[in-house]
Design a protein that fits this description.
Layout lengths: L8 H5 L11 H65 L3 H4 L5 H14 L3 E8 L4 E4 L13 H5 L5 E7 L1 H6 L10 E10 L5 E10 L2 H9 L10 E5 L5 E4 L21 E7 L5 E8 L12 E7 H4 L1 H47 L15 H37 L5
Antiparallel strand pairs: 1-2, 1-5, 3-4, 4-5, 6-7, 6-10, 8-9, 9-10
Length: 410
């Protein structure tokens, strides 16, 4: 059993001295090994978490950037396809002809709408700006010369900003419950058979198809990870939002700057105090269709994006605590073996000091430092004993000589 090295009598009487590192070799070894393991675990957790977080940020950032690009690209492609549908229709005789009945033009427009049901309304306005034919007869006879889409499409194809058209929303049945009443204006000039400007073919495109585009790239299951998709107009207005991160109103558009690349990813600090890992893509249009300057953003809260980093750190700390406990116990056991040897050496030394001539110091087998020290101390004790016996014999001889030469002491 280990005894304390201190000469404090009261400390030796306390039962818990074996757990006090000031007196106990076992406790000191367990404390050093355990604390060292804990310090190493904390350092490993911090360094590993930092490296993993940086790698994960690059991976997720690039993933969100790609998703933003795909959503933006699909929106541009879909608008371009509808844009081309109207462009191709302008080459048909019912629109280019100079003397065509409105009913014939209406049948053509309704066939276009059937082929592209995303159009809520398609109409043809003549050169004076009066609607002469429209799907289901809507808005026929209406003067539209001052409408932006008519003005913009007099010379080149026109795609306007997303807007609400209450009069159209009242006239057409909703394609699905909760459908947005916002529409996108697309218009192209019509050149008559005589080569002169004959009018404008225009369509109001439903906006509900954009949710299908978004879901095809970022499915609804992404909402479980709070990954949200938001499309902002050139003026910062929200055109499309999946509301996946749980907000009722998405954050303001991130500041990416006009001098930045069209796409990339950033860490975004919203005005609400939340932080996001954000991938973005600025619309560039497609072929002859010019971009409207929309900004598509895919973002995820930083705490959710890096949840696996926190989980990894917790796992390292947990296993580190287990390892520290195991290392401390191992240190206690190993130090206990040495402590028992030291106690045996100390007990033997006490008996030798009390003139027990039969006591010898323990001599452990092997070539360890402990065995070497015990052999050296044993040889030292034996040498001291031999010198003591020689000294005692010499003293006895001297006393005998003195008695022989001094009759008074005989």
């Amino acid at each position: 059993m280990e005894r304390p090295a201190s000469d404090s009598v009261s400390a030796r009487k306390d039962w818990w001295w074996i757990f006090d590192p000031r007196y106990s070799l076992r406790a000191r070894a367990a404390l050093i090994v355990g604390c060292g393991t804990v310090a190493f675990t904390l350092l490993l957790s911090a360094v590993t978490g930092l490296i993993y977080q940086r790698a994960l940020a690059i991976y997720l950032g690039a993933t969100f950037e790609t998703l933003a690009f795909q959503v933006s690209d699909k929106l541009d492609h879909t608008i371009h396809e509808r844009y081309r549908t109207l462009q191709l229709a302008t080459d048909l005789d019912p629109l280019r002809g100079l003397d065509v009945r409105p009913a014939e033009r209406r049948r053509l427009l309704e066939s276009l709408q059937t082929a592209s049901p995303e159009f809520a309304w398609i109409g043809f306005a003549d050169a004076s700006g009066r609607v002469v034919a429209g799907t289901n007869g809507l808005f026929e006879g209406t003067a539209v010369a001052m409408r932006p889409w008519f003005q913009g499409a007099r010379e080149r194809p026109y795609v306007g900003s997303l807007r609400e058209i209450p009069e159209l929303a009242r006239e057409i049945p909703a394609a699905e419950e909760g459908e947005s009443h916002r529409f996108l204006d697309i218009a192209v000039p019509v050149i008559g058979a005589d080569g002169n400007f004959a009018g404008v073919l225009a369509g109001h495109l439903r906006w509900n198809w954009s949710h299908a585009v978004q879901s095809s790239v970022v499915p609804e299951t992404a909402a479980r990870e709070r990954i949200g998709v938001t499309v902002y107009g050139a003026n910062g207005a929200v055109l499309l939002d999946s509301a996946a991160p749980g907000w009722t109103q998405p954050p303001d558009p991130p500041t990416v700057g006009e001098n930045r690349r069209f796409r990339g990813f950033i860490f975004e600090n919203a005005a609400s105090g939340s932080s996001y890992l954000t991938g973005y893509m600025r619309s560039r249009g497609f072929r002859e269709y010019r971009s409207l300057g929309w900004l598509t953003v895919v973002r995820q809260p930083v705490d959710r994006a890096f949840a696996s980093v926190a989980s990894l750190r917790r796992s390292i700390v947990l296993w580190g605590a287990v390892l520290a406990a195991a290392a401390g116990i191992s240190g206690w056991i190993v130090a206990g073996r040495h402590a028992r040897r030291l106690y045996l050496i100390g007990a033997a030394a006490d008996r030798i000091r009390e003139d027990d001539i039969l006591t010898v110091l323990p001599r452990p087998a092997g070539e360890s430092e402990m065995a070497s020290m015990c052999r050296s101390l044993g040889d030292l004790v034996e040498d001291l004993r031999a010198k003591r016996e020689t000294l005692n014999a010499e003293n006895a001889r001297l006393k005998a000589q003195i008695r022989e030469h001094d009759p008074a002491k005989r």
